[in-house]
Amino acid sequence: MIRLGFDLGGSHVAAGLIELPDQVRAVRSVKLPGQITFTELVARMGRMGRELLGERGCSSENPVEIGVAAPGEMDRATGVIRHAYNLDFHNVPLSRALEAEIPRATVFLINDADAAALAEWKAGVLKNYQTAWLLTLGTGVGGGFIEKGRLFFGGRGFGVEPGHMILDRQGPLCTCGNRGCIETLCSGTWLTQAAETAAIRYPHSRLAAEQKAGRPAGGKQVMECYEAGDAAAATIFERYTEQLGDALVSLIALTDPEAIALGGGISQAGDFLYEALNGYVQKYAFFETAPPILRSRFGNSGGILGAAWATLEEEAEK
Ligand SMILES: [Zn+2]
Q1: Among 48, 55, 124, 210, fewest CB within 10 Å belongs to which?
Q2: Separation of 183 CA from ligand 1 center, angstroms?
């Protein structure tokens, strides 16, 4: 079977030809304009898909299964995205529209964080676990939960949104309208704002020097400056590991996972991040021993790989 995986983000769409379990061949990534209509997006995805198939010499006679990892709320059975707020799409029939673009295609939809979790569980760092989380730490915070050997979609099919559990009622305003969600305190966006504030407060810090030299504030910069011994970055790093640590401790108390993997840009930081987080959860977790906090294997390609895995899972469910 020929499989394609798509990962639809707020600003990019990526696609790849996938050989399961873990091979991502011929990847394409296209930056999306600030505003794109549904019709334009589908036409673009169709073109990417046809090009990838053509490049690998796949004939249009062959059936192809396509998984699409997308943000927001969706109806997987009908392939409709109900709400994707960052794209401003509401009730769009993505699966059917993409099937019309690519000959002999069957399209399956999956939430992007669920896709990343599926990839790590099927072929990555969560392979040997039956109950585990993947948290994606990016602009926002998403998550997917593997429960006793299957991806958990919730009671009504809406899935899980660990990023919107409330950590601090007095905390920053979240995109969902509440305050102090895990997302507002554990995302890359929090790190970016903390780095910008610290650069003003500590003008002689390495963080400030980096930003003055034109390098953008963000999680990567905080991690690098912390590793280089910058005191301003250390203050942010310590606060961040406490906030993220509290989120992990809460997930552990709620679901008793065997492991938690971290994905997204921040997860690529060095081992010092994992040492700090594992130390924190070991100290504060409800249970006597805490599960390991692990770096994900696939990083940014987890979305397209997991989307391809979703085609198999969905087939099995039918
Ligand atoms: Zn929220």
Answers
A1: 55
A2: 6
